[in-house]
Amino acid sequence: MEKFKLAVAKREAKKPNQLRREGFLPATLYGRGVESENIQINAKEFSRLPAGAHSHMIELDIEGKKVNAIIRGIQRHSTKDFVYNVELYKVALDRKLTVTVPLKLVGESPAVKLGGVLVENFQEAEIECLPGNIPEDIEVNLSLLGEVEDAIHFGQLEIAKDIKILNPHDEIIVKVVAPKAAPTPKEAAAAAPKAAAPAAKAAAK
């Protein structure tokens, strides 16, 4: 798996908004048994990180000092794709940690080919493993869905022995259901007056 790298620097004695105006993101680096450290990241460099880096280990270069970390939190604007702050967690290579990784749908479902509708309940899985063993994604084999009402649970996922899935094993990731039935004549007749009401009001005006 590709190793992600990111250069950071110790935070300057400036207000967060001033740093942002100058093109830097205020960030905090913390970890178990170590004091938290205020740092800053070049906003453009951070935006170039692929989506996969947000759930995998990143090698930070803090002015020549190499530190392994993962992104624990990103504070964004509620309506804009604008990052306010980043939280980075320093990891030990010999200590397991909990992260979320994307689920990747692979293969084709015979039940879907026959007209069934695929319902996807989860796009990520929560796992526990060593930092160096974090997978890029976990595959969900849709070919197991042979008939309508078939489902794939977390307990059915095939993963490496050194990775533990923390999601309840009986939770359904994907399921095939029957297509929604067409309305009966009685249901269609009941819905007709409701649809006609707005038109009647408009005509009255």
What does this structure look like?
This protein has helices at residues 16-21, 43-47, 110-113, 185-204; strands at residues 4-10, 24-31, 34-42, 58-62, 65-76, 83-90, 97-106, 117-120, 124-129, 138-141, 151-153, 164-165, 172-177. The chain is an alpha+beta fold and 205 residues long. The chain has two domains: 4-91, Ribosomal Protein L25, Chain P (Beta Barrel); 98-177, Beta Complex (RNA Polymerase Alpha Subunit, Chain A, domain 2), CATH 2.170.120.20. The chain has a six-stranded mixed barrel with strand order 1-3-2-6-5-4. A four-stranded mixed beta sheet has the order 10-7-9-12, with no helix packed on it. A hairpin with a 2-residue loop joins strand 2 (24-31) and strand 3 (34-42). The longest helix is centred in the C-terminal third of the chain and has 20 residues, at 185-204. It is elongated, with a radius of gyration of 25 Å.
Please tag this protein with its features.
alpha+beta; four-stranded mixed sheet; disordered C terminus; elongated; six-stranded mixed barrel; 4 helices; 205 residues; Ribosomal Protein L25, Chain P; single chain; 2 domains; RNA Polymerase Alpha Subunit, Chain A, domain 2
